[in-house]
Amino acid sequence: MRILLVDDSSTMRRIQKNQLTALGLKDIIEAEDGKQAQEKLKAGMPVDVVLLDWNMPEMDGMAFLKIVRADATYNDVKIIMCTSESEKAKVLECLKAGANDYMVKPFTPESLQKKLGI
Amino acid sequence: MDVAYVNPFIQSTINTFKTMIDLDVKPGKPALSREGEHTYDVSGIIGLSGKAQGSIALSFPKSMALKIVSKMLEQQVKVIGPELTDGIGELTNIVAGSAKAELSPIVKDTLSISLPNVVVGKNHSVTRPSGLPGIVVPFSSSIGDFAVEIALKTG
After folding, report:
1. Chain A contact for B118 (CB, 8 A cutoff)
2. Model confidence pLDDT, tens digit, residues B106-123
3. Lateral strand order in the sheet of A78-83
4. Are A5 and A51 in contact (CB under 8 A)?
5. Which of A86, A87, A106 sits opposite B20 (nearest CB)?
6. Would you say residue A7 lies in a domain?
7. pLDDT in tens, A17-49
8. Backbone torsions φ then ψ of B123, nearest 5 degrees
9. What is the rounded radius of gyration, in angstroms, for the C-alpha atoms of chain A?
10. A103: in domain
């Protein structure tokens, strides 16, 4: 499984990378915001799952999500929003925009494993 | 400031520290914040806007901030630098984001939070605009004591 981690916090990327590595996943690429993530996808980097933060400078998670979901090339890419915001309205907004799932920070390695279905 | 606005921050602080670094933190008695009374070395500050407006600050002594970020990264962080400021900023973001979910039904509106800022400086204090009431909640833990300062006005 190839993972694209998108978060402006290097700490959060490190935490998630440590959790993914502990789950046996090694194929991980990182992006600091939606714009950088979009560039990595456009460059043809193969990705199965995107772990996507919401609040980021440059291009936030919602903007990235809408761009990706408007492009059929990425129909098979699973997008999981990972954010500290847990209001029902926010969750629904993401799912409506095409996110496959939603995780509220902070999350445990066990809940990440469950969301990834591994 | 209504205590109903403080409790979500206390609970989210307890939950965030437990989940992120497996640390039990114990809240002390909330008190009115007086300017310059408490000083710290590292503070993470985030703004809230909507029907409740203001900010939340998590403030730490340097040694504790270094221990927290070391635990978050699972590697020793010994000096104040980008790793420390990013880690404290993210911690503040998560505490504020979690509390926001509890606050939104109280103020009957979806609140927004800003991106976090981190202030570093020996013995600094966190001030707020005049007229904005502030409550400071002291916390204790096995790796040190810190404070959460909430300054919010509603309506």
Report:
1. no
2. 877 778 889 899 999 988
3. A28-31, A3-6, A49-52, A78-83, A101-104
4. yes
5. A106
6. yes
7. 999 999 999 999 999 999 999 999 999 999 999
8. 55, 40
9. 13
10. yes
The verdict on a CB contact (< 8 Å) between A84 and B87 is no
Q: How many domains does chain A have?
A: 1
Which chain A residue's Cα is nearest to B71?
A: A15
Q: Please tell me whether residue B129 adopts helix, strand or coil conformation.
A: coil
Question: Domain limits at A25?
Answer: 3-113
Count the residues in chain A: 118
Greater model confidence, B148 or B130: B148
Residue in chain B closest to A10 (alpha carbons) equals B86
Report CB contact under 8 Å: B73, A12: no
The structural domains of chain B, with segments of one domain joined by +, span 3-28+43-125
Measured between beta carbons, the chain A residues lying within 8 angstroms of B84 are none
Residue at A101 is within a domain:
yes
Please check whether residue B74 touches A, CB under 8 A. Answer: yes
- Which uninterrupted H or E stretch holds A104? strand A101-104
Q: Which residues pair with B117 in a beta bridge?
A: B45
CATH code where residue A12 lies? 3.40.50.2300
CB B147 within 8 A of CB B137: yes
CATH C-level class of B3-28+43-125: alpha beta
Provide the chain B residues 13-72 that lie in CB contact (below 8 A) with chain A.
Answer: 15-16, 19-20, 69, 72
Q: How far is A97 from chain B (nearest CA, A)?
A: 18
**Considering the entire predicted model, what is its pTM?**
0.89
Contact B134, B56 (CB under 8 A): no
A69-73, long-range: CB < 8 A, 24+ apart = A69/A97, A69/A98
Q: Which of A14, A87, A106 sits opposite B73 (nearest CB)?
A: A14
Percentage of residues in chain B having pLDDT higher than 70: 95
